[in-house]
Amino acid sequence: MDEYEYLENLSDPRTISFIEKENKETESKLGKRAKKLYPILLEMDKEPYVLNMFAYDEENPAILLYGEKSKLVLGNNTIYTPPEGYVASEIWKVYNSKEIGVSIERKGSDKIITLLISPEGKIRELGEMIESPFYFKGELCYIKSFRYSPPPDGGDYPADRVFCKDEIVYGKDMKPGEFVTIKVFDDFLTLVRQKGWRYGELYIGEGFDSLRKVDEGEVIDVVDFQQGEVIYQKNNAVYLGNRKIVEVDYPVLGVSHIGDKIAVEVIKEYRTPLFFYDIKGKRIGEEVHDNVMFMDGKGQTLFLVETSFNYKFRVVKKSDGERGEVLMQYGNYDVTVKDLYVKGDVLLHGFLVSKVNNPKGVIVYGYGGFRIPLLPSLTSVMRVLLDEGYSILITNLRGGYENGEEWHKAGMLLNKKNVFKDFAEFLSLVKLMGGKAVAMGGSNGGLLVGATVNEYPGLIDCAVIGHPVLDMLRYDKLYVGKYWVEEYGDPNDPKYREYLLSYSPYHNLKKGLPKTFVYTGINDDRVHPAHALKYVAKSKSLGNDVMLFVNDSGHSIADPESKAREESYVVSFIEECLR
Which InterPro entries would you find in this protein's record (predicted)? Predict the structure, then answer.
């Protein structure tokens, strides 16, 4: 029996009272400093930042900018800004149309509303939880995500269904946690049925009733359609039809087709250079980049959005034979970056970012899951901490994608504890050098910090856990947790249950843990706030020094005010803890 299970009900008066009490207590301890930090962080969070980009045509990229307000920019024109109280969280390339899809949400909630926007700014609302709108044979189609209730065909959820003319045309046999991506080329369909974050099946056809599976494997993504053949990526290779035309020795993050060339973004030495090939697969060039976040081609033009430790973003347009035209850029940071290598069970890499020689402490930041690589970039919190005299150590752990799919698999399912070992190696390095170590992570990174705190408390001076997954026996029952079964393992399967229990941060709490700050958002409908609430309640009952802040935000993109408020408490806690 879990005595804190009532905290999973956010409408329970006891839960409301608990949140109010904890927020009041945190305000009394950190509020004064947080108020001073808030305008600094708010100014940073109002700076422009690219959330997404795709090639609209050969001259213009469609760009979703976040900052003081989120907005859809096409060329030099802002064609859409969400209404008050909403932020735009995603844009969609609408195949066989000049329209652009835009998804908006409140306070970072995953409960999106999707719109169709014409280049002139005309708006048509499609509805809730609709993704990837496209036209096929003259009909408007889209993917609808059923995350919080069963689909109309009575299947289990969370699940995707594909609709055309408001009728389900694909997905009735899909299992909970599976999802699809669709790209359309005139009257030709390509569909990838994804099982978790790493395995997919590629289907092609001239209609949903004639789709046939042509390939399956790890990391499949359709790139283009040329002369009756599909160009697609599978793991670290590019295929044209059934022929492998490119294979590289590095993890591939993305592929674009431009003219008679193929651009391949890879991870090499923890940066993302571009390799260029002709259509037959002959290597014809390489470009150095720190971190290409988005890449998309149209005709002879390639558009890039890149970031670094030294600037916030840069949008570049590259036409055939040109070095590149910078369309938009922002930020210039004077920091020192060192590549660190640590020998644990495997050779590990991290970025040590500093502005001073003798830091007050080192914020050791990690994630380690879902194939997500940590590459050169700085958040607002990191910039403020650097200005305040701390160093940031960004760690590349197993479970990510920095060294490919095998690196990911080495930190998932029954290998998950490898990630905590890797993180501990970096914390140990900081302590051996006489530094103070702050373990920091959010979402899956919150799981990382929570598990490491339990297992290696002596290596951590302070812990920061954001929007975390912490109850590994009930994560699949809270909101969209079933999507993560392929990554963590099913708690209802004896094969995984005992292993999950052995490291679950919530279940392995004990006395004498380092000072910890936990934060979440009441509108977070991806990772249920109960993970954070239950963890804090139980940890406090054991006598640990733990603080909680429950924001009015969701899991990810929120308005700058909510984001800055959350961040101001994070920085205040670190300063107070290491004082």
Answer: AB_hydrolase_fold, Peptidase_S9_cat, Peptidase_S9A, Prolyl_oligopep/macrocyclase
Q: What is the spatial distance between Cα 102 and Cα 161, in angstroms, rounded to a whole number?
A: 19
Q: Which domain holds residue 537?
A: 5-45+335-578
Domain count, the chain: 3
Residue 507 lies in a domain: yes
**Same domain? 353 vs 322:** no
CATH number at residue 368: 3.40.50.1820
pLDDT tens by residue, the chain, 579 residues: 799 999 999 999 999 999 999 999 999 999 999 999 999 999 999 999 999 999 999 999 999 999 998 999 998 899 999 999 899 999 999 999 999 999 999 877 888 999 999 999 899 999 999 999 999 999 999 999 998 888 999 888 888 999 999 899 999 998 887 889 999 999 999 999 988 777 899 999 999 999 999 999 987 899 999 888 999 999 999 999 989 999 999 999 999 999 999 999 999 999 999 999 999 999 999 999 999 999 999 999 999 999 999 999 999 999 875 678 999 999 999 999 999 999 989 999 999 999 999 999 999 999 999 999 999 999 999 999 999 999 999 999 999 999 999 999 999 999 999 999 999 999 999 999 999 999 999 999 999 999 999 999 999 999 999 999 999 999 999 988 888 999 999 999 999 999 999 999 999 999 999 999 999 999 888 899 999 999 999 999 999 999 999 998 887 777 899 999 999 999 999 999 998
pTM for the structure as a whole? 0.95
Are both 274 and 365 inside the same structural domain? Answer: no
| Contacts by residues 474-477 (CB-CB < 8 Å, ≥ 24 positions apart) | 474/2, 474/8, 475/531
Do residue 171 and residue 150 come from a single domain? yes
Angle in degrees, CA 419, 421, 424, rounded to 5:
110
451 burial level (CB within 10 Å; 0-12, 13-18, 19+) = buried
